Amino acid sequence: MSRFNRRRFLYTAAGAAGSAAVLSALGRPAFAQNRRIRHFWWGNPDRDARTFRVIEIFNEAHPDIEVVGETLGFADYFTRLTTQIAGGNMADVIQMGYGVMFEYIQRGAILPLDEYSGGILDLSQFDESALQAGTVDGKLYALSIGANSHMAMYNTRLYEEAGITPGNGFDPYGWTYDDVKRIGVAVREATGVAGTDDNTADYQNFSDFVGQKGAELYTADGAYGVTQEIVEEYWSIWKDIRDAGATPPGPATAGLVGAEMSQWGIVTGQSATSYAWSNQLVGAQGLMQDALGAAMYPNTAEMIPGSVVQPSQFVCLSRDTVDAEAAVTYMNGFVNDPEMTEALGLERGIPSNAQVREALAPTLEGAAAVSVEFFNNIQGKTMPLPPPPPSGANEVEQTFERIAVGVLLDQVNISDAATDFLRQAEAILRRAG
Predict the structure, then answer these.
(1) 278 backbone dihedrals φ, ψ, rounded to 5°
(2) What is the pLDDT of residue 21?
(3) What's the pLDDT tens digit per position in 165-181?
(4) CATH tag, 3-146+312-376
(5) What CATH number belongs to 149-309+384-432?
């Protein structure tokens, strides 16, 4: 049986066993297995195959270290991790998400990495935004293995028909809400298609706008940090854009709140610009023929940036590691080694190492290449990443969307809607806290 087939056989058999799939290096001499560490992640068939390939590459290059991979689906991952924490037998390297990482740091389940930086851990090419996202109370706890940013996706054909191209009345990395209105109207007049989606009920855009106004969506003590004036200004901006004719009519937008990708305005041809996470560009492009371009979320008139960079996942060093230096050596390869990062590709998001992105660029085509170019161009131009949201945040978002639909349908005036939303948001957070 060939190495590939044997690996595939073991991976498939382990997955069929109904527990965490486990795989170590194949074809390794017995005497080389003196430093054995484990890597645990949540995955899917594509991610698992890529990660097991990375482990194989690392093991072949480091005969003194053996990495063993363990994977579960997302639904079961944190349940298993909780059991391992209680039993004191976590894997050496564990995968984390931004929204939950702080909880595990507070529980002492994750160790800081600062003592290894500049030695076996090379962070010289890491984006500052990624380092900040993995830093808590001045200590680096996590390495980003894939980053995301809020993105405005636009139909290049429709923009070009309106005479709008980057550098010609359009700065994808420096446009404002006024530009959104101006370009949206121009696209509609030239093509008959609304130039932009209406983000009145888009909590993602609203949360960024709150940061643009110098406020915090959620305060350190879990309260809502948004003022009446901010809510009113946000909804008034989009009403102005809508009233100018740059967006679809309010009722049409109201019917698409929370819609899946196949129903987005840019995909169906209802609008020329939609707003989402950057990792969704490839999926959206796959649903349409016209080429998509990428821009940041709009800036304010004062040029306060409207996008953030958020790591989708991290690798972290667990409290239960049996060999921290071996584990950090593996983590360093996971984010820096050209062969390992090529095997990972963009499946977990855009790499946070600038040299890795440069090396991957020639292998990418279409929307994947646009995503990496976009990510390179926004470095140093985004807002700081806010802390993860507290309990109750999902209900607050749903409440925002519901009340914003009333604004879109002209069922309530903006001032009254803002008052109602803030009253409900504060009550939700008090109850959740």
Answers:
(1) -65, -30
(2) 56
(3) 999 989 999 999 999 99
(4) 3.40.190.10
(5) 3.40.190.10
